[in-house]
Amino acid sequence: MRLLGHLIADYLWGLVGFIIIFYFITARPDGSFHLIWNLPNLYLTTSYIFAYPALMAWVPGLRTGKLKTQSMASHSSAADLKYSQGNVTNPIANKYDLNFRNNLRDDRMNFSFLLLERTVLMALATPILILVAGIKGAQNF
């Protein structure tokens, strides 16, 4: 059951990037969508359907996002909360609201970076899967 959940989650994470890249490959210069099967479309579809879930199942460490950001605003607001108890930073909004807004902005940026990582990983899944299979085969040999 856990493997099925991971498989569905991997397909959903890769779907956004697949749709965007597939549209850019198949769209005409005027922006209209015209489906023509060519080598890049076939590669991308094969990578999304077969290689990407196999790579995620084989190397589960790739599921976690590697790019984490923390803005200077959230860093300073966290320091302000930690070191100064009675200091008022902004007379309009209290320091807890400012800290919440900064953390929310950081979470959105981290989500965007995770989506970008998954899109690039989905697009390059076939060569990465071949590389991982070669490395694992060489270790077992």
Flag low-confidence runs. Answer: none
> How many β-strand stretches?
0
Largest sheet at a glance?
none
Tell me, rounded to a whole number, the average pLDDT: 85
End-to-end C-alpha gap: 32 Å
Task: Report the portion of residues in β strands.
Answer: under 5%
Q: What structural class do the secondary elements suggest? A: mainly alpha
Count of helical regions: 5
Sketch the topology as an H/E string, one letter per element: HHHHH
Whole-number count of domains: 1
Task: Based on Cα principal axes, name the global outline.
Answer: extended
User: What radius of gyration results from the CA coordinates?
Assistant: 21 Å
Proportion of helical residues = over 70%
Protein name: Integral membrane protein
Keywords: Membrane, Transmembrane, Transmembrane helix
Organism: Lactiplantibacillus daoliensis
Transmembrane segments: 7-25, 45-62, 111-135
Give an overview of the whole structure.
With 141 residues, the protein is mainly alpha-helical. It has one domain. Helices cover 72% and strands 0% of the residues. It has helices at residues 2-26, 39-58, 72-83, 95-123, 125-140.
Describe the structure in brief.
The chain crosses the membrane at residues 7-25, 45-62, 111-135. By secondary structure, the protein is an all-alpha fold. Helices cover 72% and strands 0% of the residues.
Would you spell out the secondary-structure blueprint of this structure?
Elements (H helix, E strand, L loop, with lengths): L1 H25 L12 H20 L13 H12 L11 H29 L1 H16 L1
